């Protein structure tokens, strides 16, 4: 299965952001009586006054190494949704020479970005930072989910089966009406329905039975028997007699060396 293209990932992020956008007002209203920050972070995300000049300065500072944007995103106040979307819409407009006098809105900016994703990831967009846009939108979605945590309660699943996701766990959200979204990976933005999600469960179960250590394959006795065609009973005897190397760890089955099982089986076959 091929990796999801970055334009598709951006499109999915925009969809998620637009779906959560209306719920921010309800969240801000529910936190109107908060003493420290009336309206909470939801009100910050809703802020209509997008200081694009300050945002562009911070983006440039990040590119020059003066500011760690990911750390700032997780430790400080979240950037308003409109500010992030308007920034990237304006960047695309400037590159394409399509400036407008229309006031920015979340819906208008998101639509404009979506309409020009093919351009943004083409050779024509030589100066446009498409990777930066993907990172910003991913962080924005995560912050919106965190702010709406009362309504978007994540249900965590097994790790994503794709290597590039580095073990990120698949999840799905539950909205204010109790409806569940599709399962999705926050790293690659792939989505699965309930039936396809079971493939991830199966892949995770298979992966948990094997492990590469210093270039050598280790596996559970059941998996080792499947890989080597040596009976589980014989492998258990060899392991008990310490005739093959084994590893134990709290909370998981014993692992045995697949390579040593194959070698011992070959020796026994030659001696027969």
Instruction: Determine the fraction of residues in helical runs and give it as a percent range.
Output: 40-55%
Number of domains: 3
The coarse overall form would be: elongated
**Mean pLDDT rating:** 79
Helix-strand category: alpha+beta
Strand content: 5-15%
Alpha carbon gyration radius:
25 Å
- How far apart are the first and last residues' alpha carbons, in Å? 44 Å
**How many helical elements?**
12
The largest sheet has its strands arranged as 5-6-8-7
Q: Which spans have pLDDT < 50 for at least 5 consecutive residues?
A: 50-57, 59-75
Q: H/E series, N to C?
A: HHHHHHHHEEEEHEEHHEEH
Summarize the biggest pleated sheet: 4 strands, antiparallel
Number of strands: 8
Give the SSE layout:
Elements: H1 6-30, H2 40-46, H3 52-63, H4 69-75, H5 81-96, H6 106-115, H7 117-120, H8 130-147, E1 155-159, E2 169-172, E3 183-184, E4 191-192, H9 194-207, E5 210-213, E6 216-220, H10 221-228, H11 232-240, E7 246-249, E8 252-257, H12 258-271
Antiparallel strand pairs: 1-2, 3-4, 5-6, 6-8, 7-8
Helix pairs in contact: 1-2, 1-6, 1-8, 5-6, 5-8
What would your notes on this structure say?
This protein has 272 residues and is α+β, with helices and mostly antiparallel strands. It has 3 domains: 6-150, no CATH class; 153-208, no CATH class; 210-271, no CATH class. The chain contains 12 helices and 8 strands. The protein has helices at residues 6-30, 40-46, 52-63, 69-75, 81-96, 106-115, 117-120, 130-147, 194-207, 221-228, 232-240, 258-271, and strands at residues 155-159, 169-172, 183-184, 191-192, 210-213, 216-220, 246-249, 252-257. It has a 4-stranded antiparallel sheet. It has a two-stranded antiparallel ribbon with strand order 1-2. Strands 3-4 form a two-stranded antiparallel sheet. Strand 7 (246-249) and strand 8 form a beta hairpin. Helix 1 runs antiparallel to helix 6 (106-115), helix 5 crosses helix 6 and helix 5 packs antiparallel against helix 8 (130-147). The protein is elongated. It starts with 5 loop residues before the first helix and ends with a helix.
